[in-house]
Amino acid sequence: MKNVLKIGALQIDLDAVNEDALEAHAQRLGVPPDASLNDAAGAVAKHTMTTTPAPVQGECEKCGGPLDERQERCALCGDLVPAPECTDLGNADRFVRRNLGRARYCAALGGWMIYCGPRWAADEPAAVRLAKDTARSIYGELERGAGDDPEALGKHAIKSQSAHALMAMLQLAQSE
Ligand SMILES: [Zn+2]
User: Fold this and answer.
1) How many A from CA of 148 to the centre of ligand 1?
2) N or C terminus: fewer CB in 10 A for the chain?
């Protein structure tokens, strides 16, 4: 039987959590060091669930104007944000940029947390779906004319759809 702690809509698999990370996180929230794993997980989960993502507002490098919702184009002058590099690391940047405020990695809770208002929930399959969506968005970069080497970008768009590239994207995005 799985050792699952349920708090509201959030389910924490206590066998999957990183105990050291969880205890360190809980102590930063004021939980005493001798508290049980359940109490520590509960405190971290409550904190995670009640933290609303900060609104994201990037700035245009050219005119300082606000970027659009996708962080792709300046809402004021229309200038394109430069495309990230055609590498796994570039894809991690793409993932973070597209999913700021709705996906974040929490080792203490055992993985990817996805914000589906009004709360965060551990949801690995949703994180993978966001990674697929991010990989497909590279075709959007091609259409917008982002980047200065369309051929390389086209090849990268195809390569980014492999299972290996999707996992690399998610793995490198964990530390952002
Ligand atoms: Zn601008």
Assistant:
1) 19
2) N
